Amino acid sequence: MRTRISAVVAAALFVMSGTAFALTDEEYKTVQKVAQEFLSNVPDNGYHIMAEDVLKRIQEKDPNLVIVDVRMPKEKKYDQGHLPGAIYIGFKELANPENLAKLPKDKDIIVHCDTGHEQNKALTALRMLGYNAYDMKWGFMSWKSLPPTGMTLKAIEGSILNNNPVEKADTPSVSMR
User: Fold this and answer.
1) How many angstroms separate the CA atoms of 112 and 144, rounded?
2) Which of 9, 29, 170 is nearest to 99 (CA)?
3) 53 and 100 share a domain?
4) What is the domain extent for residue 72?
5) Are residues 82 and 59 in the same domain?
6) pLDDT tens digits for 42-85?
7) Segment 102-110 mean pLDDT
8) Are residues 34 and 81 in the same domain?
9) Looking at the whole model, is its pTM more than 0.85?
């Protein structure tokens, strides 16, 4: 059990880390097994909840709901406006024992960042650690358009208008190595 917990923590740190780190062969096998178990059991909805459904649960004062804002830095994000009732834990600090202790395993935890990038790291770590975690699909930008979310939406729109090329399945793939 201790090995599994160590491996899950190592996997969570790996997921939340920007760089790879070395594992022993035994740790690698354990992390790989936990990761495979997690990935093979992701439901069709990908643990995503729409902003409208989050709002409904907030309005209903759902006692089984915990909202965690993982946007960083706190003073430029959470402090400038957040979902009603949300607590703040930056995604880089989420796996710290004192922060995990704030999160109940018997309630639905909805994490969100600005666009979905960091919340997916947080969601994966929490799920692998046994929490009932979900994310708010498309992050805070699906809730309210505030800077820098508005800039993100404009950048996405700009990329879409570029008409970037797309390959079809019958097109030979190009090796990235």
Assistant:
1) 12
2) 9
3) yes
4) 43-161
5) yes
6) 999 999 999 999 999 999 999 999 999 999 999 988 998 899 99
7) 97
8) no
9) no
